[in-house]
């Protein structure tokens, strides 16, 4: 019964959020599906006009939208973040102030700000990575150096706070910072943290008190817990840099584990589900199609060159027997779920011109249409099928302001709510109407 209740809680994840909210990373149920109706079927030739733009500072953390408010996390610093934006060259210490802002969703006016001092040494030190999660009247945020905050959503006042590096006895901040988007289901908060026996932790969402800790790995990685029904039971799926694991969500007890080790400990995407299969993939052409049978699981296919896809910054979408996503070099593609065969691929909605290291676009589905927000700051509207990629239109929303591999990029998940898209770069938060 508790497992059934946990799955029901995930389906309506945020009790205080309306049906048109986007209260966390990848949407209400973290599957990249936007359910609102009355959305445009094409983008006007003149583009999309901003309803508002509000100045903010640096960060990769996407916005969340709930209860008529927008929540976004940034870093204000005089430090040279460009110099530190190299894959294996952490810049630091970067000193500054991390801030969680609450904005009015209709006007962009900042209603409150919670801030704290930070000093950290990480690669790509532009700012926070994790999208805030809104649940039960609270906002949960994770800074790039591991400050975990629970704030009152109405006032911004702290309810409780933790330093993950101290709490879990970590020797240092992960090379690319803390990236795990908090998952809140009912009275529990799940998070990839770090330290011995605590790669994944479960906390009481109201008090911050630890409920359980689980999993060992040399490094915590950069992925995000996913709650799903597998074999008729509720399971928390966590991809560490060494393996994909299923845990009992109430206890943290390990159910099964399948080895999957991407290069450089870069487990980033959250494993995605289609039927009784899971898929996860990452850099170094490391991917696996995992079949789950009751309380057992095995990799029935392994990725290799020119099969499956191996994302860096984004989590793909699974639609029946097809996976849509962006590969390591920026090719957007459709892949057959069971065989790993690449059905088609294109650079048009991502980098535009051809391969780029970690080329990126974030993908969501709305009805029969798909939206991609790419690293150039463009919103692309497309129709996807196993047969082809069909672009319907695109519009420039914000300028790329972060730095990666010698180019400027926007590497921040958008939010879709109130028939609008909400996007950010390192200078502004912006809102555009997508109403029909």
Walk me through what this model shows.
The chain has 436 residues and is mostly beta strands. Helix content is 3%, strand content 45%. The chain contains 2 helices and 34 strands. It has helices at 2-11, 164-167; strands at residues 50-55, 64-66, 69-77, 91-104, 110-122, 133-135, 138-142, 147-152, 158-163, 183-185, 188-192, 200-204, 210-214, 226-230, 233-239, 243-247, 254-259, 272-274, 277-282, 286-293, 296-302, 317-319, 322-326, 332-336, 342-346, 361-366, 369-374, 378-384, 389-396, 402-404, 407-409, 415-417, 420-424, 428-433. It has a 4-stranded antiparallel beta sheet, with no helix packed on it. The longest helix is centred in the first third of the chain and has 10 residues, at 2-11. It is globular, with a radius of gyration of 20 Å. Mean pLDDT is 94; it is low at 1-16.
Radius of gyration: 20 Å
Q: Spans with pLDDT under 50 lasting ≥5 residues?
A: 1-16
- What structural category do the secondary elements indicate? mainly beta
Can you count the beta strands?
Answer: 34
Strand content: 35-45%
Give the spatial strand order of the biggest sheet.
1-34-33-32
Assembly state: single chain
| Helix segment tally | 2
For the report, how would you describe the main beta sheet? 4 strands, antiparallel
| Backbone shape | globular
Instruction: Give average pLDDT, whole number.
Output: 94
Measured between the Cα atoms of the first and last residue, the distance is 42 Å
